[in-house]
Every structure is written in structure tokens, then in C-alpha cells.
Amino acid sequence: VPLIIGCKDRWAAAGLLAVWLVLLVLMPEQVLTWPQSAQTWPLLALLAIHLLTPPAPYGSWDARGRAHPAGPWRLPAHAHALAWAALAIFYLNLILSPTPGSSPPAPGSFPSESFPQAPPQAPPLASGQAASISQGVRWLLTLAAAGLLGLAIHATTRPWGWLIALVIGVPTLAALGLWQLAGVLLLLHLFTFNPAWLPGRKATAPQPASEPEHLFYDGHCGLCHRWVRLVLAEDRTGGVFVLSPLQGDYIRQRLSDEQRQGLPDSIVVQRADGRLLTRSTAIFYILARLGGLWRLIAWALWLIPRPLRDAGYDAVAALRHRIFPRPDEACPLMPPQLRSRFRM
């Protein structure tokens, strides 16, 4: 739990690695044989890589209440490269695993049981079919690894290699009933995902780079303040949104009295073309503009019909003041380098 929520997470990762080392000393045969070894070594690799990353990324428990939401946190290049190496080794391990009918696997390797086999009393035809299925699976995993390793060499083709391997590898393992291995492979893919592969949605009208779109928020709403912190953390350059409270003077300069009438006291986005977005549409537009995994979330949630989306938004809005305390100031506490992104 501390590792997941980011509470002294590097200590938690070190503790998990220490537990595994103790188990390795006490029960080497059980730890180094299937399925424990095949399922745990990639996770152990990620825990070791986690020790090389800085503490307190945005969204973690240790980063709560920090004046600068994002802080100085960056994923080091060497940690990302090590995660790619672990992903490649995992695929090679799958490809080099023994075929049905071969000699027993050595401790720590993938055994023949990892692929479908005929029952012990099966006729010769069934046995041959099982072997051909296993070979077909091996070709699929080889194709995934080839796409991963071949296309990952260059930065422009790396996302496609990552995607090809993901689409082939995870469903193949899941179809064989190897759910835990499929989950480990999915985790490795998520760790190697680069948010820059999914840039934020472009503005809806031509505008100078120095003219971001406008995000108006309720300065008396704790949940809205958290949305502001999310935007400040993920829009690192400040080129996506200018932030302004609904209760300020700046919105009166931007919007007429007629436009301000009927606006909800929550989140409002004014696009570059002047259109005003409210309720769930504003939330999804913000996520799409931020890019990365936020854009994926926006795509997924956009599939929900708008009446259902707005109903869920209204339900959260009705409870927000009970769940999130009312802030003392209209603007969240910010360091000087972020204050220029606000308009009062």
C-alpha cells in the first residue's frame, strides 16, 4: 500500500526486495522455479528501477500540499532505459522457453507447461496439434519481440514497436490462461510508456504560442483548486491554459454579462475560438489538451453518452463542498514562478 500511494515508496520498494532476498535464502528451490521466478523477476526489476527514481512525484502521498504541484520530479533517462531492457528480456525469455516434449526446464526458466500441451494419454494427432499450437504461439511472441526491438531503435518508430508488442503479447498470454504473466507484461509496457507519444489536443483555432486558452474555476471550491493543481503539474510550460477564478475581474474583461449568466460555479473553459465549455465537456477537453495518459482517459470517457456524463458530473458537484474543504483564498498557494499563469 505505501508503494502504491507513494508514501515513502522507495523504502517500501527496498523492503519488498529485502523480503524476496530472505525468501531466496530460506526457500531457494521454491523461489527459483516456475511459476514464482517467471512472474516475480520482472517485478523485482521494476522495484530495483524504482529505487533509482526521485521521490514524491505529483499525485503521490508524499507530494500532497506541496506549493509547486509537480516539483522538480522527472523520470531519469537511465531508469526508463532499464525498464525497456527488462521488457526486452521478458520477451526473449518467452521466446526461448522450452517446447512441449523437450527436457525439463532449468530452475528460473519458462517450462513447457507455459504453453498448451496434449493430455498424457492423447492420440498422436492431438499431440502434434498441441505442438503446432505452441510453435504458433512462439511465432506470435517472436513477432511481438521483433516489432519491439526493431522499431524501438529510432525515436520516431518506437511508439509503434511498443504498441505492436503490446497488442500481440498481452492477449496471447491471456488467451493461454497465463493471466499473471499477462499482467506482468502489461505492467512492463505501462512502465515504458512515454507520455510524449500522445501530445495534447491542439487548440481549436489558430493562435500565437504565447496565447493559451482560458480555464476559469470556482475560487471557493476545494475540488476546483485540485483541478488547478493538476493543470499546473501537467502543463509544465504554461502554454495550454491561463487560469482565472470565476469571482475575479479578469473574467469580466473576457466575457460579457450575457455570457457569464448561467455559467456553473465550477470549471469553465474558453477555447481559442471563443466557445465556452462547461460540466463534463470542459473536464474532458482539459484532459485531452494535457495529453499523455490524460488524453487516453479523455478518449475512454468520451464514449459515455453526454447525458450520463453530465449526470455524473452534477452528482460530484453536489457533494464537492462536503468532501473537499473550502479554501481560504481564491488562488491556491503557489511559488512565484507559477503565479504569472493566473489572471485575477
Describe, in plain words, how this protein is organized in 3D:
With 344 residues, the protein is mainly α. It is built from 15 helices and 4 strands. It has helices at 2-5, 9-26, 28-31, 36-50, 77-95, 124-151, 158-175, 179-192, 222-234, 250-254, 257-260, 279-290, 293-302, 306-323, 336-339, and strands spanning 213-217, 241-245, 267-270, 276-278. The chain has a 4-stranded mixed beta sheet, with helices on one face. Strand 3 and strand 4 (276-278) form a beta hairpin. The protein is elongated and about 75 Å long. Mean pLDDT is 80; it is low at 99-133.
Chain oligomer state:
single chain
Counting H and I runs of at least 4 residues, what is the number of helices? 15
Q: What structural class is derived from the secondary structure elements?
A: mainly alpha
Described by the principal axes of the CA atoms, the overall outline is elongated
Main beta-sheet strand count, sense and barrel state: 4 strands, mixed
Runs in which pLDDT lies below 50 for 5 or more consecutive residues are: 99-133
Mean pLDDT: 80
Topology as a string of helices (H) and strands (E): HHHHHHHHEHEHHEEHHHH
Radius of gyration from the CA trace? 25 Å
Count of extended strands: 4
Strand content: under 5%
